Amino acid sequence: MTRITVSGHPGSGTSTLVRGLIQHFGWTALNGGDVFRNEAARREMSLQEFGELCKQDLEVDRALDKLLQEKMLEESADIVESRLAGWWAYRLEIPCVRLWLEVDEQERAKRVSNREGTSIEQALEENRKRSAVDAERFMELYQLLPEQREPYTSLLDATNLGSEEVLAATLSILEDLQ
User: How many CB atoms lie within 10 A of CB 53?
Assistant: First the structure.
């Protein structure tokens, strides 16, 4: 049963938070990115090839999102991490904490730069392009943006927080809402 969805833009710390929750509680997690990677492997395509297919054929994207939703309904993962996981839990009426991690674009670029070994300027530009492409796709597919506040039970501004502080704040949210 899903206890929490964790969503945020790339570089917001969702994966780090999920690892912390798993370590703290011993919970299981379902990662939307893993669903994407598994489908690419099933189709014997590279991630880049599969990403291009998703851009060219929105039905493939819809099918992936449907697969994630089905997994959310049938699997017993405690945590679901994806940019749209909060929206899916909201629309599917899954009773859980739906958390959005908010991090300003400069900090996200800094984090991506550190993770990927690129310049902050390059990470900032790539994040902006990815966000614009994703926003266009999500609006066309579902008439929504991941960051819209409607589906989230909690918003955590993690711009100036370290990973341990984000985990502590999330633990507090979980205690307050459950």
Answer: 15
Q: What is the pLDDT of residues 106-152, one digit of tens each?
A: 999 999 899 889 999 999 998 888 888 888 889 999 999 999 999 99
For residue 143, tell me if it sits in a domain: no
CATH classification at residue 157:
3.40.50.300
Residue span of the structural domain in which 27 resides: 4-104+149-165
List, in sequence order, every beta strand (DSSP E) within the chain: 4-8, 29-31, 79-81, 97-102, 154-157
**Nearest Cα to 79, choosing from 139, 6, 24, 12?**
6
Count up the domains in the chain and report the number.
1
Give the separation between CA 168 and CA 174, rounded to whole angstroms. Answer: 10
Contacts of 60 (CB under 8 A, 6+ apart): 53, 54
Query: How far apart are the C-alpha atoms of 68 and 2, rounded to whole Å?
Result: 13
**What's this model's pTM, rounded to 2 decimal places?**
0.89
* Phi, psi dihedral angles at 98 (to 5 degrees): -120, 105
pLDDT per residue as tens digits for the range 73-102: 987 799 999 999 999 999 999 999 999 999
